[in-house]
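protien #1 (seq + structre)
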Amino acid sequence: MLPAFQPNPEFAVGLNLPVEEATIVEERPATPIVSLGTAPHPRHFIEANTKPVDMAHLKNDCVVPVFSKDNEVTISHQSFIETVWNAAHRLFPQEVIDTPDIVVSHIIKGRIPEAIHKPVNQLLETDKTIYYERMAFCFEIPSIYEEVAGNRLNLSIGGVRAYNHENLYSKKTVEKFKVFIGFKNLVCCNLCVSTDGFKRELRVMSVQELLEASLQLFQQYDAERHIRQMAALQRQSLSEHQFAQLIGKARLYQYLPTAERKALPAMEFTDCHINAVAKAYYTDENFSRGTNPEIDLWKLYNLFTGANKSSYIDTFLDRSLNATQLIAGIGRALEGDTEYSWFVE
């Protein structure tokens, strides 16, 4: 049975959010909201092109960019993380909530004004400034979990911020964030994201708006339905021939004439991802075909979410959701639906 959550009624009512009944499977002492530091252990929910950091580094070693025309400060990476983390504490007050795992990429280097004319080889560390164009974070709520095919899935929350999606050369305007709530497969640290648990473009002007929008997303997410959808994937399989069709069609997809591609559902994985899926079909420690040439859709789903860990930060969550939509669509195609049938016919 899914250990669902019990929202904090007082806080939910304050935001005019509906309070739904839920079941607590195990109760633990509430974790206090404390200063965020280094995660106790690595969680490789995204692997390529990133550098793991902690909150202390973001707070103490990084500057915060501004909108250049009015010098208004942006919402910093650390404020984004803390806001979502605190929202989770308010809606899940009795649950264990882990420290966020944070990764960054695309470092932006600068100098303090006093060092503008110094040669590079004479720069001191105190003369340099940095910030990261892209940042992703994820934290688990391990007291809320379920098992699918023997894999423990912990409820997880996270987000992505990419300053390259903002116009920092203008005056301050709405800022864009990606926020999700879903499950992490502890066998492989793959993230499982559903439509109602993902906000692709959360547009806000302030930290308070970010807090309220995050809470609304968490409140609308149906964890029980998400688990049922994932568990159902075990009941359908692709033959080796159908898997080969899928790999071939996925590689053809990006080269289709525009009109033909627009007539098909979105498939956001590149050749590099598809190659990784094909290799993992034979070699993945947990989700390969094994001795049976058939592969069930749960394993196939994890091959795609595993390949997604090589994505750039700013496309990672979009592809996570696309993996869910693609494999669910293939499942419907096996039952006669035509929307995704092109990929396996």
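ok now protien #2
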Amino acid sequence: MKARLRGAVVAVAAFSTTVALATCGPGADTGSDGDGTPTIALLLPDATTARWETQDRPLMEREIRRLCGDCAFEHVNAKGEVALQQQQMNSMIAKGVDAIVLVAVDGRSLSAAVGKAHEAGIPVIAYDRLSQGPVSGYVSFDGEEVGRLQGTALLKGMGERVADGQIVMMNGDPSDPNAVSFKKGALSVLTGRVKIGKAYDTLQWRTEAANLNMAGAIAALGAGNIHGVYAANDGLAAGTISALRANKVEPLPPVTGQDAELAAVRRIVSGHQYMTVYKPFAPEASGGAAMAVAAVRDENLERVATDTVTTHGGGKVPAIMLSPVAVTVDNIKDTVVKDGVYTVQQICTPRLGAACDRAGLT
């Protein structure tokens, strides 16, 4: 393992689950990047999902600087390209960063790069998605629980149509291990309860692909024969709803989502989207920061972990696992507003004034 910030004092710092790490104090040993500054790199997967650049990145950077004032922070975005993320991993390894927080575009394809980082003594923290390869730690939410929340909400939104209705499934990218978990969780609730008329996997989680697939489903099944849509995230929900509205489907069937994007919360208020899954960004980003700072200090990651997970190779690594929350029009105020993710003013545009009044968002 590379030389890192040894000898720093560890103190308790709570962040929704009890995660502890102290800020880097004066006199801490220097990292091995040449200028005495330990460096943590965050590798993001795409610019399609709004949360990565608007929530996770700034929150994690702020928490890293709070925990370790001497740490440098870098981030890059792979823009959905596996080859680009592989190059970015190789670049960070060549630069000799002290820890990498990785949100893999494709967990399987990044396994060799994770192995290369491990051989170079650079710990890799898998963030939100469990990448293959010798990762040192993992921070995420229970993916199957996300799917179960979505499936349960969809059945509730369909009401009496569950008995004789059918749905369309707009799943995520099958190369994303989270998408596989979401789908598994959803099917555990939906199978045997409702007919699945069409199901699609959406490469790179592209909104436009969901739009085209939904248009195809409408053509194949008939506009009046779709009574619910399982959309794995808010981007897919947006493409789905756009296709439904373009084909004049009225009333809109309940559509699920995930990530609590601002646009999705507004769609929930307006009645166009039924629900989203809120994965509180601050605790996840804090967990990623805590593990990364522990790693650059050569601390045992079990000190900040709340759990363990089994990797694709069969080993166990320290993990911080958090609980997702279903958001509908009835609890927006008690979730994303209460947590300070969005203000009522941000959600309630002039066009949504009456709908916000009905939702109690005043």
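The first strand starts at residue 39 and ends at 44.
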